[in-house]
Amino acid sequence: MSHNKLLAIEKPVRYTGDEIGTRPKEGAELRFVLAFPDVYEVGMSHLGFQILYDILNGEEGIAAERVYTPWPDREAQLRSLGEPLATLESHTPLARADIIGFTLQYELSYTNILTMLDLAGIPFRAADRGNEFPMVIAGGPCACNPEPLADFLDAVLLGDGEEAVVEIAAACRERKRNGETKQWLLERLADIAGVYVPSFFETRYNGDDTIDAITPLRPGYDRVRRRFLSNLDTAPYPTAPVVPFLKTIHDRVSIEIGRGCTRGCRFCQAGYLYRPVRERSPETILRLVEETLRNTGYDEVSLLSLSTGDYGCLTPLLRELMVRYAHEKIAVALPSLRVGSLSQELVEEIRKVRKTGFTLAPEAGSERLRQIINKGISEEDLLRNAFEAFSSGWRVIKLYFMIGLPGETDEDLLGIADLARKVKLEGKRAGGGEVNVSVSTFVPKPHTPFQWEPQITTEETVAKQRFLRDELKKRKLTLKWHDAPLSFMEGVFARGDRRLGAVLAKAWKLGCRFDGWGDRLNSTAWREAFSACGMDPAFYHRRRGLDEVLPWDHLDFGVTRSFLRQELEKAWAGEATGDCRTGRCTGCGICDFDRIAMRTTDPAWQKSGTSPTMAPPAAADAKVTMRLRYTKTDAMRYLSHLEMIGLFTRAVGRARLPIRFSQGFHPHPKFSFATALSVGVESWAEYLDMELVPGPTPEEVQHRLNAALPQGMRIIEAVVVPPGTQSLSVLMDKVRYRITLPEKAASNLSARAEAFLTRDSFPLRREKKGRVQEYDLRHELAGLTVDGPTLELTIGRGKPLEYAAAITGLSPEELADARIEKLDVLFKKSLISPIQGTCNGQ
Fold first, then answer.
1. What is the pLDDT of residue 426?
2. Could you tell me the end-to-end alpha-carbon distance of the chain, in angstroms, rounded to an integer?
3. Which of 453, 512, 523, 524 lies closest to 483 in space, CA to CA?
4. What pTM does this model have?
5. What is the rounded distance in angstroms from the CA atom of residue 563 to the CA atom of residue 557?
6. pLDDT at residue number 80
7. CA-to-CA distance for 471 and 124, rounded, in angstroms?
């Protein structure tokens, strides 16, 4: 396929690969494809994906490669070209891989799995895939109930994957070396702790569609217990992760400081799935942060945990991070702070570089409902935390609540509005601040005390949203909510059984894709799919009997059924369950107090020794402006101007250049580009000015940046420009391009060029974002030559493709396969000359 075809789709850089940190391997014995069933930007933000990529590629003979769901425009393009879905690293078609591992992060991504299998030419159903097809497995949070996907998956990994994924890969290698069958491999996988093989179980139903029994078909394989990673501190972690060119959902260094949570919130599935608490030591965290920052060039570190504020020695750790990195303008974000765990000292540390997002999650609007869900926070804690944040300069706080919680009344909804208003008053008391209120609909998830509770209907959800919106409007507050149809479908597949596989396949055939994207959920098609399969989706939202067989009962995630029932009883009694981090063991059944046990850090930890030496602060006016000329070729031509800014920001960080920053709460590195190059145009003459603290020579800057830039970008020259030099945009006069036309478009090119030169005028009118631009292409043309199918032109204003269309008389669509190269920039001779040279693109 011509690479220019990518110009016909949105965000072509999603599909190019070759990012910093990729690890392609030729001739690997086993090709393990990590597949994320959502768009690239979402998948690249998933930390677990990066961890497995690093672990597998660290194994000799194993190549881990990535693939994401193509956006509908790319899907249509692949189908029209008859090309299979392939990996980013080696462009290997998925059907030629040995194993494909899907990440089940969200229930509404399931149709995307079918899209990816279909584009790969792989049969949907595991029973239809013979020995010639790759194994299709899955893991992730939604693996706690993979039954809706049971027909499509050969195996599922339950729980932590760091160790198990290597064992799975080893079993696949053994099969490949010895020429064993798929059935042999399934038997082998079932012997690995944490691996669930759906075909080794059979589900029988009663006449009322409830489950009669889940029967094991393999002796001794009655229940599958999740895999536990006993020690997070010694677990492998990617300090040189793949750094995307595209801005992703979480565009920063992510460090998992702890796994698991001891709070026991009864609504929180993750709190039960990831027990027990295992924390990384602060020494390990500091090492991982340092290595990852230097390998990626990011300017923000996110400390991840289900409840980061509960980390044993968070304040001294954060203080040490600020000592090390504040002078480099590297910010620290704490995305999961629990109300009550925030101290004034923490707030002061966070704000030292820039104010990252600030979200507080009361979850419920009344103390009574927070007792039911065991949230364990007070209104006083919330208001205190809000005042501290507003007083420290935050202007906006986001409050997160749920509607539809068990036992909720209209008074609880009014409580949300009143609590939000009180928080806003705290902002007023602190000198000004706004509050954004966000609500989602509660879905009773498997393996939680509320797994037996019903989910409210779509109509109830909409009514509650309207009621809450009106109440907040009275208090001059606005509301954002999770769309009711999305929550409805999430509840169906989170609580569903194997019969949903037929519905899923039918919905996919009716065109369902990217269902988790609110504007793409096709509720009409889903209703048709359920109807065609003779099923009522609301069946899965009903209250479950306490003795009923649940679809996930044969999957053991450690917390006992008796404990969950006990917690449900305590919820309705309004009784609290304490935090086993600070109190007695609650008896949930997870720990064996040997290999599986809570591992926390010492709250009294203090950094031993001295911190890394920091560069002395430069005088406020000490600066040097470096002017760079660089290339932008091959896959780099698909980067937009915004993506180029991000790429250079990270490259400067990896190169350890002493860049100067703008002032204010959100400092940015001070560099400026000459122009914004059109996506798809290759260039041998791009220019950039950057402000540095005096020190490195131009040669050092060139060398260090080239070591940090991806293939297709090279600094050709670097010079220091004297103070007072005009900006690049002022200095630029003309640009020289070379356009190599497709064979059909190059017919009689010389005559057409001569005819264009004889014209007195060729006016052009262009509209963009409501603004009209008018100029004359003939007047802006300063030079034109023809050599075979190639045009070489020197122009002022205008785009090279516009000139090619004007000269040839062809439409831009007919010129879509033209190769456009920017060869040189001509500068005004009357002004101070910047770097200037001629490059023929050789």
1. 94
2. 23
3. 523
4. 0.93
5. 12
6. 96
7. 48
Distance CA 802, CA 811 (A): 9
What is the pLDDT, as a whole number, of residue 480?
94
Structure tokens at 330: 């590297």
Q: What is the rounded CA–CA span in Å between residue 716 and residue 683?
A: 12
Mind listing the pLDDT tens digit for each residue in 116-166? 999 999 999 999 999 999 999 999 999 999 999 999 999 999 999 999 999
Which residues of the chain register pLDDT less than 50? 1, 830-833, 837-842
Tokens of 737: 């391009």
Q: Could you give the CA distance from residue 522 to residue 514 in angstroms, rounded to a whole number? A: 10
Q: b/e for 89-126, b at 16 or more Cβ within 10 A?
A: bbebbbbbbbbbbbbbbbbbbbbbbbbbbbbbebebeb
Contact 15, 4 (CB under 8 A): no
Which tokens go with 420?
Answer: 């939000």
**Which amino acid is present at 401?**
F
Q: Residues 6 or more apart from 607 whose CB is under 8 A from it? A: 282, 316, 320
**Which pLDDT value is given to residue 842?**
44
Closest listed residue to residue 153, CA positions, set 504, 673, 420, 436: 504
Residue of 285, 279, 283 whose CA lies nearest to 302 = 285
- Per-residue confidence (pLDDT) for residue 739, from 0 to 100: 96
Helix/strand/coil (H/E/C) assignment for every residue in 714-761: CEEEEEEECCCCCCHHHHEEEEEEEEECCCHHHCCHHHHHHHHHCCCC
Angle, CA of 305, 306 and 307, to the nearest 5°: 85
Contact, 356 vs 300, CB < 8 A? yes
